[in-house]
Amino acid sequence: MNAVSCAQSPIDHPFFARVWPVVATHEAKAVQALRRENLAGLSGRVLEVGAGVGTNFALYPPTVEQVVAVEPEPRLRAKARVAAANAPIPVTVSGETMEQFGLAAEPFDVVVCSLVLCSVRDPDAALRHLYALLRKGGELRYLEHIASAGVRGFWQRVVDATLWPRLFGNCHTHRDTEQSLVDAGFQIDTSRREWTLPFWMPMPVSELALGRAVRS
């Protein structure tokens, strides 16, 4: 649920920027384990989209040469820069939105998305842009909230249509992110779903998709 937008207007989520650092500090161990798995084995130049407070920075393996992290929300970005200064690998934090982040002279080897594609205003356009930023054969690692089925899916649609996006940085819980990846041109190499909270709990963000998609 990190704050990234496809819009060009400034990103300003004061309530979310107060809440998210607390959530990140007390993140469930199951989510922490999935974060580590999502970053395992990475190397080369990495673009991290929606860095939030920099939760991932300490988890990157030493084989990563550089991380360029995008976080347009100013309060979160300030915390991310503190985390970057203490990271075991070089991390640069940019305040641009995803769409403002232009094509680099050298494409990235990897794009990392952690709890962020739920918050972009146009996920299809965002993923097409990320596709263009990757080298051929590069991969997109994702750990994302995803649309659930049945009663929980109905609950997700209800909260998405009411206060949830307004309170939590434009987070939309009922998105078919993996279909959007395919539509953008990616090939999904590995994918699985994980429950990070008991099934009976009413939270709409309990189910996460962990996977790897490749630019052909």
CATH superfamily: Vaccinia Virus protein VP39
Instruction: Give, in spatial order, the strands making up the sheet with the most strands.
Output: 3-2-1-4-5-7-6
Tell me the distance between the termini: 28 Å
Order of helices and strands: HHEEHEEHEHHHEE
CATH topology: Rossmann fold
Whole-angstrom Rg: 16 Å
Which structural class best describes the helix and strand composition? alpha/beta
Strand content: 25-35%
Using the alpha-carbon principal axes, give the shape. Answer: globular
Major β-sheet, in short? 7 strands, mixed
Number of domains: 1
Low-confidence stretches: 4-9
CATH class bucket: Alpha Beta
Characterization of the model:
The chain has about 220 residues and is an alpha/beta fold. It has a single domain (about 15-215), classed as Vaccinia Virus protein VP39 (Rossmann fold, 3-Layer(aba) Sandwich), CATH 3.40.50.150. Helix content is about 30%, strand content about 25%. The chain has seven helices and seven strands. It has helices spanning about 15-25, 30-40, 75-85, 125-135, 150-160, 165, 175-185, and strands spanning about 45-50, 65-70, 90-95, 110-115, 135-145, 185-195, 205-215. The chain has a seven-stranded mixed β-sheet with strand order 3-2-1-4-5-7-6, sandwiched between helices. The longest helix is centred in the first third of the chain and has 12 residues, at about 15-25. The radius of gyration is 16 Å and the shape is globular. The two termini are about 30 Å apart.
